Amino acid sequence: MRDTRTELLLQAEILVRGRGYSGFSYADLAAVVGIRKASIHHHFPTKADLALALVAAYDERYDAALASILAQAKGGVARIAAYGRLYLGGVEDDLGCLCAVLAVERDALPDSVRAAITRFFDKHITWLEGVLADGLGDGSVRAGVSPGPTARLVVATLEGALLLERVLAGAAGFRGTLDTLCETLSPRGA
């Protein structure tokens, strides 16, 4: 059985990824978890505190996933494909990326939350730059790819596909976009 804080984070993440930061209240979260709002305030005094905890937990899960990709996938394109599959769950669950959903509401967020999502995306872009640079070095990524701009392109493509395919073609459409992205990065592709 999960503890209350863990359950609050789980349910709040689903609410934010489905409705956005402004689209839910502590009353909504209390109803889903089956506790009083005061109990939520005990764990997360402010909505900003809750958002920061959500981003931290999300970031920690992604850190583990990125480490696993580096350990298991061989070559730049294979690692990009594995990274892209992390987004696929969002399409299948009809949920956006937590940090992208928050970024959409950038102007409504406290500075601390904006800084946390910026760090999240900066970390991913840096990780992807390394994957692409390594792939250029070992020949698993098409020659001429510029790691910095291409890392941003990868994130933008996957975030955009996650957003679009939730309303268009679902998982099949997302897989098609991911396959095309990987083909363009492959030494055998475009």
TrEMBL record:
The keyword Transcription applies. It comes from the Bacteria. The keyword Transcription applies. Residues 25-44 bind DNA. Residues 2-62 form the HTH tetR-type domain. SUPFAM superfamilies: Homeodomain-like (SSF46689), Tetracyclin repressor-like, C-terminal domain (SSF48498). Keywords: DNA-binding, Transcription, Transcription regulation. This is TetR/AcrR family transcriptional regulator.
